């Protein structure tokens, strides 16, 4: 009864445009009031404790590193570089888009940040060379979903908190699934090249290959620093994020000299506030999770699943459908913090590896980022390109099928998620 | 009003400084361990507390800039939306007051409760909760006033976006 | 039910600790004729150990799980329990908790902190593991980068032996050992097995430095609100729970875990009495000095005197 009331209240709060962080907090507050459990001090403690976690330190650091790299003009450098690599073939710019997305994913932890950054560079460029702007927008946000699947990943940092999974293992687990998504998207581009590509391809800029490569090398080194530093034993996963920030500062201030003090101040300030808007969701979700645990909702959910089926494959089908629906309405961070503590114990009871399950959940929610009614990246690309959402969604339809195909493969082939972390010795 | 403006400026500077300290402390810790084999026991905890402080004070600043993640779908020309949004904001204020009050109680009971590594009374990090909640209540109250009086008909995002 | 005890602990539902709490639940519910209902939230669902203890302290829940280190956050003198080489064996440590002398300390904790210590179960001694060499005596610790939790006493201990104490957050410990950020760590034996540390650690030394104690803590105001009959039932149930947990864990750690770790390729070394003494001697002075600087020196002296007296009495009983 209480749980039902809480769900309805949540819907109403979202509908009247209450910020999600506070909608989550208010329903927890209401639930505790109704059941007469807890008090104001424990509520404040849960919000505080939810944020007071070593693993979450990677969050501001990855956000800051991403913002610094964008402020330093690295997007242009990356796009120039891949344009030289694959820009000349048929539908070349579509591949450039995917490849740039892939490289950005290795630098940044957020699909939304990548959408905003790449969208502002790639979509005008594709439009200028004769591609449909709606297709350009659709392809950009489809490629951007790999940002949090490939390391580094803000979403994985958040996922690791309630589940106590190793961030390093999660990072490695995401690599093959992320590459698979990009590969499938590239196959789609190849198969539909005739339809999507403009008839004549004109290479516009005549830049020196050597210069573009030299320009891009320091940027391409950044992912090497993260993975190499962690594997080489110099730094922990969280410290790697700090070192990445230091490296980005070095690129901006010393090497490219692209960022002044005033810009730096703004980047730091904006990063702090973006961090806060995510962290406050983490905090109020932790209060909500406390309410759920006291009401024993995770236990009830496990029993419900056990009652419905004892087949892990069927369980995963249910989870897939459920999360696709959830992802269409709820933003990724609250979705993970609210539902993973309920779903993961059930998944483990079906013998599903929690690391594999994490990748399934994240890919699922990433697909949801691009679906209406609540699709954060859809809103972002729409505002960056000035195209109405309806047109972009139409261009997205075939891409949804590609992404669902990737999702199904990742869900039912655990090997894709588990092989690398095992090979790297991060999983038994 | 101008007092609050200067408070905001101080908070912004503190946010930037806190983030910079986190980066410096973690990079410094790597250097100390790797080169000097002598890492310190407290940087992790310091960074965690700074992150919590960034989160709570950033929460306040995000109210002013309308940066909190929310659904925005109602036309600002529609008459009823004002009252619907105001009701939501009122709930937010109740929640902030409750958490702020709880944070104050936590602070009071934790003066003799040391943190693990810094041995700092937990009351000090907990104090961030009531202070930021009071500031946020002022910010949300102002927004509520704007919504009800129709002063934000153009949408708050654009309005504040200009001065950043 | 007239009373509901909501309880939080940090371990899985398969753990000996959970079984202990289940025994507590079963006994208290039946012995009270249903007057008390117990609801256990396992696996840290309600928060970390410190968080849950704070919740119990402010009355948001009634009971929580504490240990020999975290209790001192709420009542400083409890710090003494985490002193390295204070106890010779598990039984000695648990007997001390229930001794007449320490019962007074527990009463003081209840009135000053709002948390009452009901019972304690040993979860085994913390032991060193590392990747550099077989550590047979304190001198072998020289230069080893040993991960310790961020507690001053653990840092002092490793430093006193000549090792280099390296704080690494628990979440990153496995990776830090694998990649060589640290050479070793110290935890109870079962941890090396449960968290697969044997995959990244070669040597274990059974030096038995710090006795791990899981405690059942209850909100003092709630406890006092019960009738004396019900209080007695709660106290008895807690002792039963602790006995169950200790029995299960002791069997698993002593009989199963060591054999399993050896089978999985770890070299487990048990120091001779002479070698064991080198560890104890290396840390005694710095530890006493540290404790006396933090706590009332008379209290520290009294604790050592009590334990020596109990040891002498045990010896006299068999002579
Ligand atoms: Na990424
Ligand atoms: Na969506």
UniProtKB/TrEMBL annotation, chain A:
Q: How does it sit in the membrane?
A: Multi-pass membrane protein
Q: Cytoplasm as a keyword? A: no
Where it sits in the cell: the answer is:
Cell inner membrane
Q: What is its main location?
A: membrane
**Transmembrane region positions?**
25-42, 54-75, 95-123, 135-161, 167-191, 212-234, 240-259, 271-293, 313-343, 355-375, 395-420
TRAP C4-dicarboxylate transport system permease DctM subunit domain mapped to chain residues: 8-414
Record key words, sorted: Cell inner membrane, Cell membrane, Membrane, Transmembrane, Transmembrane helix, Transport
GO MF: transmembrane transporter activity
Pfam families from the entry? DctM
A Gene Ontology cellular component where this protein is annotated is: plasma membrane
Q: Which domain of life is it from?
A: Bacteria
* The protein's assembly and partners: The complex comprises the extracytoplasmic solute receptor protein and the two transmembrane proteins.
Q: Which family does it belong to?
A: Belongs to the TRAP transporter large permease family.
Physiological role: Part of the tripartite ATP-independent periplasmic (TRAP) transport system.
- Please state what the protein is called: TRAP transporter large permease protein
TrEMBL record, chain B:
A Pfam family cross-referenced in the UniProt record is DctQ
GO cellular component, alphabetical, reads: plasma membrane
Any Gene Ontology biological process: C4-dicarboxylate transport
Tell me which UniProt keywords the record has, alphabetically: Cell inner membrane, Cell membrane, Membrane, Transmembrane, Transmembrane helix, Transport
Span-the-membrane segments of this chain are 12-34, 46-63, 83-104, 124-148
Tripartite ATP-independent periplasmic transporters DctQ component domain span: 22-148
Please give the Gene Ontology molecular function terms for this protein: transmembrane transporter activity
The record describes its membrane topology as: Multi-pass membrane protein
Tell me the compartments it is located in. Cell inner membrane
Assembly and binders:
The complex comprises the extracytoplasmic solute receptor protein and the two transmembrane proteins.
Family named by the database record: Belongs to the TRAP transporter small permease family.
Function, as annotated, reads: Part of the tripartite ATP-independent periplasmic (TRAP) transport system.
Identification of the protein by name:
TRAP transporter small permease protein
Organism of provenance: Nitratireductor aquibiodomus
């Amino acid at each position: 009864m209480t749980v039902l009331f809480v769900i309805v209240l949540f819907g109403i709060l979202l509908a009247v445009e209450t910020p999600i962080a506070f909608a989550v907090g208010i329903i927890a507050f209401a639930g505790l009031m109704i059941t007469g459990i807890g008090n104001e001090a424990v509520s404040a403690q849960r919000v505080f404790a939810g944020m007071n976690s070593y693993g979450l330190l990677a969050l501001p650091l990855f956000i800051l590193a991403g913002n610094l790299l964008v402020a330093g003009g690295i997007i242009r450098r990356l796009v120039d570089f891949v344009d030289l690599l694959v820009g000349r073939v048929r539908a070349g710019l579509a591949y450039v888009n995917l490849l740039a997305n892939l490289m950005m994913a290795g630098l940044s932890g957020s699909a939304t940040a990548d959408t905003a950054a790449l969208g502002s560079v790639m979509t005008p460029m594709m439009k200028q060379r004769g591609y449909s702007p709606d297709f350009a927008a659709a392809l950009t946000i489809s490629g951007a979903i790999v940002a949090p699947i490939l390391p580094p990943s803000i979403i994985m940092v958040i996922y690791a908190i309630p589940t106590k999974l190793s961030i390093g293992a999660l990072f490695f687990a995401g690599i093959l699934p992320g590459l698979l998504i990009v590969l499938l998207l590239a196959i789609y581009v190849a198969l539909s090249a005739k339809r999507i590509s403009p008839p004549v391809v004109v290479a516009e800029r005549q830049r020196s290959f050597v210069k573009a490569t030299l320009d891009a090398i320091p940027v391409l080194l950044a992912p090497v620093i993260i993975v190499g530093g962690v594997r080489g034993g110099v730094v922990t996963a969280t410290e790697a994020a700090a070192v990445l920030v230091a490296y980005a500062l070095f690129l901006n201030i010393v090497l490219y000299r692209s960022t002044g003090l005033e810009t730096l101040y703004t980047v730091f300030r904006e990063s702090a506030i973006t961090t806060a808007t995510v962290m406050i969701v983490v905090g109020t979700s932790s209060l909500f999770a406390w309410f759920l645990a006291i009401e024993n909702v995770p236990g009830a959910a496990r029993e419900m699943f056990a009652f419905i089926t004892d087949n892990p494959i069927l369980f995963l089908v249910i989870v897939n459908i459920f999360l696709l629906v959830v992802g269409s309405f709820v933003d990724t961070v609250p979705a993970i913090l609210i539902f993973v503590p309920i779903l993961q114990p059930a998944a483990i009871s079906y013998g599903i590896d929690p690391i594999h399950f994490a990748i399934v959940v994240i890919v699922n929610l990433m697909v949801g980022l691009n679906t209406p009614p609540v699709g954060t990246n859809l809103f972002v690309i729409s505002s960056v390109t000035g195209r109405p959402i309806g047109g972009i969604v139409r261009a997205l339809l075939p891409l949804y099928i590609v992404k669902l195909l990737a999702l199904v493969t990742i869900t039912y082939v655990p090997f894709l998620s588990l092989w690398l972390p095992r090979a790297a010795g991060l999983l038994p | 009003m101008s007092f609050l403006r200067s408070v905001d400026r101080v908070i912004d500077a503190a946010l930037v400084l806190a983030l910079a300290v986190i980066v410096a402390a973690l990079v410094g810790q790597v250097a100390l361990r790797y080169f000097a084999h002598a890492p310190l026991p407290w940087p992790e905890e310091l960074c965690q507390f700074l992150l919590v402080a960034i989160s709570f004070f950033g929460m306040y600043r995000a109210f002013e800039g309308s940066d909190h993640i929310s659904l925005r779908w109602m036309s600002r020309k529609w008459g009823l939306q004002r009252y619907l949004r105001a009701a939501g904001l009122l709930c937010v204020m109740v929640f902030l007051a409750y958490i702020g009050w709880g944070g104050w109680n936590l602070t009071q009971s934790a003066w003799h409760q040391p943190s693990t590594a810094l041995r700092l009374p937990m009351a000090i990090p907990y104090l961030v909760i009531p202070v930021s909640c009071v500031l946020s209540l002022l910010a949300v109250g102002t927004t509520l006033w704007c919504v009800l009086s129709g002063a934000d008909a153009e949408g708050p995002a654009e309005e504040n976006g200009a001065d950043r | 039910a007239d009373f509901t005890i909501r309880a939080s602990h940090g371990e899985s539902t398969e753990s000996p600790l959970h079984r202990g709490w289940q025994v507590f639940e079963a006994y208290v519910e039946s012995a009270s004729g249903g007057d008390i209902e117990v609801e256990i939230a396992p696996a840290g669902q309600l928060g970390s150990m410190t968080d849950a203890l704070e919740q119990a302290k402010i009355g948001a829940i009634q009971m929580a799980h504490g240990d020999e280190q975290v209790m001192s956050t709420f009542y400083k003198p409890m710090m003494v329990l985490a002193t390295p080489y204070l106890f010779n064996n598990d039984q000695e440590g648990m007997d001390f908790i229930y001794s007449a002398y320490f019962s007074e300390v527990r009463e003081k904790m209840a009135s000053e902190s709002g948390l009452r210590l009901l019972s304690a179960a040993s979860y085994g001694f913390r032991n060193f593991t590392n990747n550099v060499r077989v550590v047979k005596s304190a001198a072998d610790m020289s230069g080893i980068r040993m991960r310790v939790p961020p507690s001053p006493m653990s840092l002092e201990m490793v430093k006193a032996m000549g090792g280099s104490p390296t704080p690494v957050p628990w979440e990153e410990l496995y990776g830090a050992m694998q990649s060589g950020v640290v050479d070793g760590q110290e935890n109870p034996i079962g941890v090396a097995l449960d968290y697969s540390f044997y995959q990244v650690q070669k040597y274990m030394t059974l030096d038995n430095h710090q006795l791990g104690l899981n405690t059942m803590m209850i909100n003092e105001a709630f406890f006092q609100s019960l009738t004396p009959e019900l209080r007695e039932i709660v106290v008895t149930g807690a002792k039963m729970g602790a006995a169950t947990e200790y029995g299960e864990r002791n069997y698993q750690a002593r009989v199963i875990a060591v054999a399993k770790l050896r089978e999985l390729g770890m070299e487990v070394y048990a120091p001779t009495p002479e070698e064991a003494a080198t560890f104890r001697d290396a840390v005694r002075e710095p530890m006493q000095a540290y404790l006396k600087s933090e706590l009332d020196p008379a209290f520290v002296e009294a604790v050592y005197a009590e334990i020596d007296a109990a040891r002498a009495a045990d010896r006299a009983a068999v002579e």
